[in-house]
Amino acid sequence: MSIYVDADACPVKSEVERVATRHGLRVHVVSNGGLRPSPNPLVDTVIVPDGPDVADMWIAERAGPGDVVITGDIPLAARCVEAGAQVLKHNGEALTAANIGNVLATRDLMADLRAADPFRQGGGKGFTKSDRSRFLEALEKAVRAAATQPRA
């Protein structure tokens, strides 16, 4: 059982490390550079080459039943859900076989709306303490659920 973190712009890396250490789980923090490696022996910092979706491909090729993936990237989440992994967004929202189709459709719709109105301003909501707390609770739940999954 491993935890895979899509580390670019991930606000919960330290929370993942804390939970993984408590459970004795290996963590793979994957990015294409710019991260300070953790001194924790359970944390593996994986630097992939620059390029579109290289970190996503690295994670998707490895994650499966019994693993947990932390990502805000919806196409990566869909691939990992399909492979049988537990998937969480940074705010603690679980992405599952039951909801990933709707999440993908919403993502695509929003991309189309942004493309149709190039003057549209604004970004997403800020990351809050309640998001962090919700994430920690969801990660504990996902780790317990992943531990009961049979490995492929």
Order of helices and strands: EHEEHEHEEHH
- Number of alpha- plus pi-helical segments: 5
Determine the structural class based on helices, strands and strand pairing. Answer: alpha/beta
What top-tier CATH class fits best? Alpha Beta
**Rg calculated over all Cα atoms:** 15 Å
Going across the biggest sheet, name each strand in turn. 3-2-1-4-5-6
List how many beta strands DSSP finds.
6
What is the CA-CA span between the terminal residues? 11 Å
CATH fold assignment:
Rossmann fold
Helix percent reads: 40-55%
Tell me the strand percentage band: 15-25%
By oligomeric state, this entry counts as single chain
Q: Which residues sit in consecutive blocks of at least 5 with pLDDT less than 50? A: none
Number of domains: 1
Largest sheet: 6 strands, mixed
CATH architecture classification: 3-Layer(aba) Sandwich
Mean pLDDT: 88
* Shape field: globular
Explained architecture:
The chain contains 5 helices and 6 strands. It is an alpha/beta fold and 152 residues long. The protein has a 6-stranded mixed beta sheet with strand order 3-2-1-4-5-6, with helices on both faces. The mean pLDDT is 88.
Characteristic terms for this protein:
Rossmann fold, 6 strands, six-stranded mixed sheet, alpha/beta, 152 residues, 5 helices
In short:
By secondary structure, this protein is an alpha/beta fold. It has helices spanning 13-23, 54-62, 74-82, 100-116, 129-147; strands spanning 2-6, 26-31, 43-47, 68-70, 86-88, 94-95.
